[in-house]
Amino acid sequence: MALLTMGCDWRAQPITMAMPFTLPAPQTQRHGHSEEEHMKVWIITSWDMETPSQGGDVVNVQTRPAAAYTAVTTNDTMVSRVEHPAAGYRKIFETCEELAEPIPAQVTGRIPSWLKGSLLRLGPGLFEVGDEPFYHLFDGQALMHKFDFKNGQVTYYRKFVRTDAYVRAMTEKRVVITEFGTFAFPDPCKNIFSRFFSYFKGVEVTDNCLVNVYPVGEDFYACTETNYITKVNPETLETLKKVDLCNYISINGVTAHPHIEADGTVYNIGNCFGKGATLAYNIVSIPPTQKDKSDPIDKSKILVQIPSSERFKPSYVHSFGITPNYFVFVETPVKINLLKFLSAWSIRGSNYMDCFEANESMGTWFHLATRNPHEYVDVKFRATAMNLFHHINAYEDQGFIVVDLCTWKGFEFVYNYLYLANLRENWDEVKKAAMMAPQPEVRRYVIPMDVHREEQGKNLISLPYTTATAVMRSDGSVWLEPEVLFSGPRQAFEFPQINYSRCSGKNYTYAYGLGLNHFIPDRICKLNVRTKETWVWQEPDSYPSEPLFVQTPDGVDEDDGILLTIVVNPGAALRPAYVLILNAKDLSEIARAEVEVIIPVTFHGMYKP
Ligand SMILES: [Fe+2]
Question: Binding of Fe cation: at which residues (predicted)?
């Protein structure tokens, strides 16, 4: 039935654009601190620009290193230092050709000798078909990128994934399958009678897997957020087969952010139809490689079901948290109106974006489920309204669950600001639009595992190192207030990464992220989540992507490793893009490998050793 194949979690990624500076005159208490201490205070206290503190001295930002954008300073802030008047960022939203074969990259610096794998990434590469444009950032057709590292040399290769959406668009020379923000009109060659019926046939769910790639057993799958994932060959980038997850589990779609445990078990979440045809969320698992070499997807299963705050309106879900004993699901007020989805879409020609709406009163609901046994924890954890795309990490400590998130304040959908027409505007217009958008903030929430009714009115959090609180109210719900880890006006720390193999689900220290300046990606950031110290890599007119952490083989410290990011520098006529290798300790440059082609925006990916 059509409902079950709707794939209700769509794709997504906030891509952001940044803004320049004019550093917002930060205010702080200067007296009584040494210069170093002073800087620290500034970092910790001055970022919430919506409510700047009053009465302190203004820090003279000119005294900080200004021009050396590549230099990285501890105790610095993560705000962008550059403007983009030339609007070079437009280049990352332009169609490019795939490559017939891998091309060599010119290396500057020294590629670590132990780096012998592939960086795999996905993003849109075809932004129009003939004269029919795609409208939204998440609509362009999936292009898979690969940088290979071998013996200190680097090559680059890319290929469009042969999804049905892509192949049919190429064949029919028009947009055939409706994308996130682009409606596919019926074939104009059909007569009006058959066109009418094609509206009623319902929705063909897209398989345009432009968001991420991850391993399942010994295979690799490119994905979006619908029920379709696409098996690819990570060596040749060939498309192998399309898999419909609805054939294995009761799910409308799953996120592009599964958690993958050391043994290879894959966990994911998606909305589904629960009891009485009401909406719910299923946490699902796919086991590791099977001894008999059978496809692990055959053994996919549902572990636990989490109820929805609204019967017929699931929330948009982009990622979730996992600890050794819990699943953490944050249900935001960005809702998918299923009735609108069913009627508006097939009859009036709407797209996925038209089916989102905000629930202005629910705030945000935090849900927990235990992992052994798999059971829903029936406690009402509540917080203010937010958009949430990316969990950074979650862990258990002394009876509490710490949940670190890249949030956006309020219930208005951030994706409303990610239409390509907006992102391709001149810099002043980009900034103006972002001023209207929800504001980003990195937050730490802490959830008490053990809640007792008699503790009403008290702060239940006794972790010594956080200011996050949880207070039980008279109705039995527990109100969560976060500790802010970073907040800069229109300056997002997004696309977060950690030393995943070592720290996922565990107490940790470092998060890495892509800095969005008014939604434009223009820097790489590192955040010490314990001390709030920060580091930044940035160069003028340069547009990086999500930084992936790769641990040094003999690494001891959590941040013994490198970051891999693809950077586009449109002004460099000869070699306008490169893969950048940064030392994860201090974000200093280790090497870059430049190619003679532009590389369009990429969202997520992985390092395959
Ligand atoms: Fe994402």
Answer: 257, 318, 390, 604
Q: Distance between CA atoms of 397 and 21, rounded to whole angstroms?
A: 39
Q: What is the whole-number distance in angstroms between the Cα of residue 211 and the centre of ligand 1?
A: 7
C-alpha 68 to ligand 1 mean position (Å): 31
CA of 360 to the centre of ligand 1 (A): 24
The C-alpha atoms of residue 53 and residue 45 are separated, in whole angstroms, by 8
**Helix/strand/coil for 546:** coil
Kindly list the averaged pLDDT for each block of 10 residues, start to end, along the chain of length 609: 30 28 27 29 25 28 30 61 97 98 98 98 97 96 98 97 97 92 73 51 83 98 97 98 96 96 97 84 96 95 96 95 98 90 65 91 98 97 98 98 98 97 98 97 97 89 98 96 96 98 98 98 98 96 98 97 98 95 98 98 98
For the chain, what is the largest distance between any 2 Cα atoms, rounded to a whole number of angstroms?
A: 79
Centre of ligand 1 to C-alpha 2, Å, is 26
Q: How far is the CA of 318 from the centre of ligand 1 (A)?
A: 6
Q: Distance from the CA of 232 to the center of ligand 1, in angstroms?
A: 19
Is the sign of the CA dihedral 149, 155, 161, 166 positive or negative? Answer: positive
| Model confidence, pTM | 0.87
Distance 560 CA to ligand 1 centre (A): 25
Token representation of residue 194 = 């058959």
For each of the domains in the chain, give its residue range(s) and CATH number, in order of start: 1-69 (no CATH), 88-608 (2.130.10.10)
Distance 391 CA to ligand 1 centre (A): 9
The set of residues, in sequence order, having a beta carbon less than 8 Å from that of 445 and lying 6+ positions away, is 366, 383, 402, 403, 404, 405, 468, 480, 482
**Spatial contact of 320 and 391, defined as CB atoms under 8 Å apart:** yes
Residue 604 counted as an annotated binding residue: yes
Residue for token pair 């027409």: 421
Residue 450 per-residue DSSP state? S
Q: How far is the CA of 493 from the centre of ligand 1 (A)?
A: 13
Q: Which helix (H) or strand (E) holds 164?
A: helix 164-172
Report whether 391 belongs to an annotated binding site: no
Ligand 1 center–CA 307 separation, angstroms: 23
Q: Cα of 13 to ligand 1 centre, how many Å?
A: 4
Q: What is the DSSP string of 395-447?
A: EEETTEEEEEEEEEESSS-GGGG-BHHHHTS-HHHHHHHHHHSPPEEEEEEEE
Report angle CA 238, 244, 247 to the nearest 5 degrees: 140
Convert 559-593 to b/e letters by CB count within 10 Å (16 or more is b). Answer: bbbbbbbbbbbbeeeeebbbbbbbbbeebebbbbb
Token pair recorded at residue 465: 């190192």
How many CA within 13 A on the CB side of residue 47? 27
Token pair recorded at residue 48: 């919430």
In whole angstroms, what is the distance from residue 142 CA to residue 3 CA? 25
> Phi, psi at residue 449, to the nearest 5°?
-80, -30
318 marked ligand binding residue? yes
Contact 594, 106 (CB under 8 A): yes
141-150 vs 132-133, strand pairing mode: unpaired
Cβ atoms of 350 and 344 within 8 Å: the answer is: yes
* Residue 390 annotated in ligand binding: yes
141 Cα–ligand 1 center, Å: 17
